[in-house]
């Protein structure tokens, strides 16, 4: 190795530990606007295990459908693919830390033109003519090239790629828990629609009976035909509500099929048996706001994206400084393959370069990277505040649904007693049909109100589990090796 090359390498060694750009520093709760406690009434004890929150609803079919999300939902499968791509991007970034080595070998032979000859004088003075033969040549060679990471631009690039891989893992978890919640929500909607259909059909049967009684009373001359017409109108209105409920049920069941990676009608057979709306626990502990930030994968993804953006500042700043390239080559060649290593030649080189003038392009790239990091911070803070908003909204929605449920229990009991009394009085001719109709309408309204409140409570509970970040193991950063593989792939792995 010649002296200039050795001198450049000696200069490069102390600089190799430097890294351009700022080091990333995680943000504190105060910088993100995280309060010490919730602004609404909530149980702030330590959070329960939220990894499989759907099992708290004690519904085997719901549990099976939600479990299928990890391997059968196509949005989740796409998130797994993006996670694999992020892993390969990290591999590619790391490769720049090492030299590139290439090797080659060659062989050639030249043949004479047909009829080419040469004359040779023998020792006795005789001249003879011989045909010319071909020539063969063989060669081997290898080249090494290395871009010295003097100012840490490559290392910052690896740092950014690693942060992006972690962000992609949290993005996968975000898609997964959102899908789990969507499956549970549509399951609740389907069961609620079944209960609404049952209520409507029960009411229709009662109104059929009322219409028959009104007809008998009209024929007997006890009442005018007004009672019969009012009974017909009430029955028709109830019957008219049934198609909409059936459409809602079909929509929810079809959505469940697609969310589990199947055709829309795949689950209609399994869902046909009527089951009550799953209720889940009466209350759950939500912990303190800081717990939510550690549990929510979208918040952690935004934080990792900020770390990647800060690292990219160093990548841009490194372009402002000199770059050092080192390399070498070794070659061997001979006309006989057995002698190919008799003569070996080598070459070592070093090159240092510095941009002198680029009209401000490189410095503009640095400022652009700094602006991108600022934007990533604002996105991180916005994600944090939105997460806190989601939790408080879900807490209030759950509490409101529980209060409504308690009141509708009372209303249903009173409406049921009133309907029984009105029905008996009407049959005995002690009251008119308007009173009976009003009592029946109140009963239907109370039944549907209680059902809706229970459905809303279950839905709000699901929303709260989602807002808290339940549905994944927050203690493990998702990587391609740690997440379940999609059930169906192209076979290219």
Can you give a write-up of this model?
By secondary structure, this protein is α+β, with helices and mostly antiparallel strands. The protein is built from twelve helices and six strands. The chain has helices at residues 3-15, 29-32, 60-67, 69-72, 74-95, 153-219, 225-259, 268-271, 289-295, 297-318, 361-427, 433-467, and strands at 100-110, 117-121, 127-131, 135-148, 323-334, 344-353. A four-stranded antiparallel beta sheet has the order 1-4-5-6, covered by helices on one side.
What topology emerges from the helices and strands here?
Blueprint lengths: L2 H13 L13 H4 L27 H8 L1 H4 L1 H22 L4 E11 L6 E5 L5 E5 L3 E14 L4 H67 L5 H35 L8 H4 L17 H7 L1 H22 L4 E12 L9 E10 L7 H67 L5 H35 L26
Antiparallel strand pairs: 1-4, 2-3, 4-5, 5-6
Primary descriptors:
four-stranded antiparallel β-sheet; 12% strand; two-stranded antiparallel ribbon; 493 residues; alpha+beta; 12 helices; 6 strands
Query: Beta-sheet strand percentage?
Result: 5-15%
> Largest sheet, described in full?
4 strands, antiparallel
Q: State the separation between the terminal residues, measured CA to CA.
A: 44 Å
Task: Give the overall form.
Answer: elongated
- Helix/strand order: HHHHHEEEEHHHHHEEHH
In short:
By secondary structure, the protein is an alpha+beta fold. The protein contains 12 helices and 6 strands. It is 58% helix and 12% strand.
């Amino acid at each position: 190795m010649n002296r200039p090359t050795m001198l450049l390498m000696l200069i490069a060694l102390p600089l190799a530990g430097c890294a351009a750009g700022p080091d990333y520093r995680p943000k504190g709760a105060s910088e993100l606007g995280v309060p010490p406690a919730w602004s609404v009434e909530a149980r702030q004890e330590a959070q329960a295990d939220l990894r499989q929150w759907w099992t708290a609803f004690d519904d085997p079919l719901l549990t099976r459908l939600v479990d299928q999300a990890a391997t059968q939902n196509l949005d989740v499968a796409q998130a797994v693919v993006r996670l694999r791509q992020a892993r390969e991007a990290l591999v590619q970034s790391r490769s720049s830390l090492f030299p590139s080595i290439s090797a080659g070998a060659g062989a050639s032979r030249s043949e004479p033109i047909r009829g080419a000859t040469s004359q040779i004088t023998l020792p006795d003075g005789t001249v003879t003519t011989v045909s010319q033969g071909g020539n063969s040549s063989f060669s081997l060679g290898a080249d090494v090239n290395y871009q010295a990471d003097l100012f840490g631009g490559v290392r910052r690039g690896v740092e950014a790629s690693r942060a992006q891989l972690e962000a992609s893992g949290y993005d996968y978890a975000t898609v997964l828990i959102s899908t789990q919640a969507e499956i549970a929500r549509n399951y609740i909607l389907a069961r609620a629609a079944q209960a609404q259909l049952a209520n409507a059909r029960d009411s229709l049967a009662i109104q059929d009976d009322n219409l028959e009684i009104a007809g008998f009373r009209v024929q007997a001359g006890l009442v005018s035909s007004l009672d019969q017409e009012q009974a017909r109108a009430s029955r028709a209105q109830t019957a008219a509500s049934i198609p909409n409920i059936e459409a809602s049920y079909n929509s929810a069941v079809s959505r469940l099929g697609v969310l589990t990676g199947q055709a829309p009608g795949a689950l209609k057979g399994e869902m046909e048996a009527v089951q009550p709306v799953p209720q889940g626990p009466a209350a759950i502990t939500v912990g303190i706001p800081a717990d939510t930030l550690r549990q929510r994968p979208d918040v952690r993804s935004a934080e990792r994206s900020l770390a990647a953006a800060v690292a990219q500042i160093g990548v841009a700043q490194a372009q402002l400084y000199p770059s050092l390239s080192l390399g070498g080559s070794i070659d061997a060649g001979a006309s006989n393959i057995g002698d190919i290593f008799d003569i070996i030649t080598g070459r070592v080189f070093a090159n240092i370069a510095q941009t002198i003038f680029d009209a401000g392009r490189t410095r503009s790239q640095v400022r652009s990277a700094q602006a991108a990091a600022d934007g990533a911070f604002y996105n991180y803070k916005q994600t944090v505040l939105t997460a806190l908003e989601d939790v408080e909204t879900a807490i209030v929605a759950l509490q409101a649904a529980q209060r409504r449920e308690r009141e509708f229990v009372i209303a249903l009991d009173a409406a049921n007693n009133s309907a029984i009394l009105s029905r008996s009085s009407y049959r005995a001719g002690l009251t008119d049909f308007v009173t009976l109709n009003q009592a029946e309408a109140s009963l239907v309204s109370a039944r549907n109100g209680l059902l809706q409140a229970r459905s809303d409570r279950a839905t709000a509970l699901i929303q709260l589990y989602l807002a808290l970040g339940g549905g994944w193991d927050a203690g493990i950063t998702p990587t391609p090796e740690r997440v379940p593989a999609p059930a169906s792939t192209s076979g290219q792995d």
